[in-house]
UniProtKB/TrEMBL annotation:
Domain of life where this protein originates: Bacteria
UniProt-annotated stretches for the region Disordered: 530-560
Designated name of the protein: FAD/NAD(P)-binding protein
Pfam hit, one: NAD_binding_9
InterPro entries in UniProt: FAD/NAD-bd_sf, HpyO/CreE_NAD-binding, L-asp_N-monooxygenase_NS-form
Domain FAD-dependent urate hydroxylase HpyO/Asp monooxygenase CreE-like FAD/NAD(P)-binding: 6-165
Length: 585
């Protein structure tokens, strides 16, 4: 019987794994034959998120030149580098364009087809356009993958879960809000991928409470304005009359920072410097384990500060006191944040040029406005200031911090535990919306279609309505018959609607305190609650504690997902080759 590998999830992560199997097979798996079964109800390559059947108004949040599915020499992996075109090279479009997601889906389908074509002739790929329901089988024996609508399971020597973003059952708060909405005939849209949400119940002219100010909100904003016939004329929004009035707030109370709109020039900060493989190994070797805030965050702060000040001193020396070499030596010698702060105050005269991560993370912390109208004007100014800064190379240390964030994320993946707080912080600073989309926010505000609630937005229920308030504007509140939770569901294994994951969890697969599936950071094998890696089950993606910034990445930035794909592919091929050789003997 030919060896068999089942990959559950045929989106970009599954495609990336096949690409790495094809790249590594000549070295590790030649001439033994293999059946690869791809299980996904959506088309291979694009999967659910990048499918063709969605609005062309749904854009990528990265420039076309910053999107690749191919490895380069910056990826720290054992397997061979197999280069390929970025999205802009493949589509022959301007590299600075924010392409729509349907075009990205076409690129991903092409990458998938190229990866399949590169497999050895005796490797066959079968696509099953169904959902996987559960995985069974003994630790040391063949696995059984049960599919929706299929009476008998697929038999697999190995199973890799590459599921992507998952739907989730509501938590206690969401369940209570949904029940209240049903009782009082209200509209409650739970966390979801915005392109899948039914927005038809959000009526023209009526107030809608929106909790969440990130990328899901931007999608919602676009679909309810341009998607309903409105248009932007320069910095003015011309309503169609079909828009609801969106009252938006969140924990921070501000939108994600705009994507940076200029190119890098000159010397790059030499990263990693203070948080690299040696520091990761030291943390992993600690007998009592480590705490993120106590042990990891100080290293992250120092690393991001190094990236920032390296760029400031080397590209904008007129805004500093002294030489970079002197500052770098003293900076390296500091062991506490207070020491670094004193050093920075002496060396960087203008506070605007200093990196303050706390202020970046919570810009409205402790800020209060006397009136709702005053806050509207202030937040429009905040967004316009962010757009100006993010498109002006005078502030190029911001781009250096972006590179630092990518480097740090790669090390955290090696550490084995990228929790929701870090992922949210990274996304807020480094994975925000395109500048043109953010520029629409002040225009929609001036048109009266979009209103800002503030930070730490709370939602309560009273008198048959939803009510929102925020300490940012004391005394202000707004009531509405509709509430939208503008964010993806939390990737919690125990509450996943995916029965496959829930059953794995019930059978003993380990989860983090945040609810992510625990995997071996070396190769992605699923860990049980005793910390043992399953010999025949792997998992890759945002629902694991090995989550990465994305299944694809910016060229020449190390690509943590690519490194993971390579490690998993090589582990799988070695295992399957061993089976084949024993069978031949």
């Amino acid at each position: 019987m030919r060896p068999s590998l089942v990959i559950v999830g045929a989106g970009p992560r599954g495609t990336g794994l096949i690409e790495r199997i094809a790249a590594n097979a000549p070295e590790l798996y030649a001439g033994s034959g293999l059946d690869i079964h791809l299980v996904d109800p959506y088309p291979p390559g694009s999967g659910r998120i990048w499918r063709a059947t969605q609005s062309p108004l749904m854009w990528m949040n990265s420039h076309a030149e910053d999107i690749t599915m191919f490895t380069d020499e910056t990826v720290a992996m054992e397997g061979p580098v197999i280069g390929g075109p970025t999205l802009h090279e493949w589509a022959r479009i301007d590299g600075r364009v924010f392409a729509d997601r349907r075009l990205q889906g076409s690129y991903l389908r092409w990458v998938h087809e190229r990866a399949v074509a590169a497999l050895p002739a005796d490797v066959t790929v079968h696509h099953h356009a169904r959902r996987a329901l559960r995985v069974g089988g003994p630790r040391e024996g063949r696995q059984q993958v049960w599919l929706e609508g299929r009476p008998r399971p697929l038999l697999a020597d190995l199973v890799v879960l590459a599921l992507g973003h998952l739907d989730a059952e509501p938590d206690d708060e969401q369940a209570e809000l949904a029940a209240y909405a049903r009782t009082h005939d209200l509209v409650h849209l739970a966390p979801d991928f915005t392109a899948d949400s039914d927005l038809s119940a959000l009526r023209a002219g009526e107030p809608v409470l929106v909790r969440g100010f990130g990328l899901a909100f931007v999608d919602l904003m676009v679909l309810l304005t341009e998607g309903r016939g409105g248009r932007h004329d320069g910095d003015t929004y011309v309503p169609s009359g079909q828009e609801p009035v969106l009252y938006v707030g969140s924990r921070r109370g501000v939108p994600y920072h705009s994507k940076i709109g200029y190119d890098w020039s000159g010397e790059r900060p030499p990263l990693p410097r203070f948080f690299g493989p040696a520091e990761v190994e030291a943390l992993l070797a600690r007998p009592g384990g480590f705490d993120f805030r106590r042990d990891v965050w100080p290293l992250v702060e120092k690393e991001l500060g190094f990236a920032h000040y390296h760029r400031l001193f080397t590209a904008h020396p007129e805004r500093t006191n002294g030489a970079w070499s002197d500052f770098e030596e003293k900076y390296a010698a500091t062991s506490r944040a207070a020491q670094r702060e004193a050093l920075v105050v002496a060396a960087v005269p203008d506070p605007v040029d200093r990196l303050d991560l706390d202020a970046l993370d919570r810009p409205l912390e402790g800020v209060r406005y006397a009136s709702f109208e005053q806050f509207q004007e202030a937040l429009r100014g905040y967004v316009e200031h962010d757009l100006t800064r993010r498109h002006n190379p005078y502030h190029s240390p911001d781009l250096a911090v972006f590179l630092g964030l990518l480097s740090v994320y790669g090390q955290l993946v090696r550490l084995g535990g990228v929790g929701p707080w870090w992922h949210g912080f990274f996304s807020y600073l480094a994975s925000g919306p395109p500048g043109p989309r953010l520029r629409h926010i002040p225009a929609l505000s001036r048109a009266g279609v979009l209103k800002f609630v503030g930070a730490d937005m709370s939602v309560t229920t009273e008198d048959g309505m939803f009510r929102a308030s925020s300490p940012t504007v004391p005394g202000f509140s707004v009531r509405a018959r509709a509430l939208v939770e503008a964010r993806l569901p939390a990737p919690t294994v125990a509450r996943a609607r995916d029965t496959l994951l829930r059953e794995l969890h019930a059978e003993g697969a380990a989860e983090t305190p945040d609810g992510l599936l625990r995997v071996d950071p070396a190769d992605g094998r699923i860990l049980d609650r005793a910390g043992r890696p399953h010999p025949r089950r792997f998992a890759l993606g945002p629902y694991t504690d090995g989550r990465t910034p994305g299944a694809f990445t910016r060229p020449r930035t190390g690509g943590p997902a690519f490194r993971q794909n390579d490690a998993t592919a090589r582990a799988a091929l070695r295992f399957l080759a061993g089976l084949a050789s024993r069978a031949a003997a």
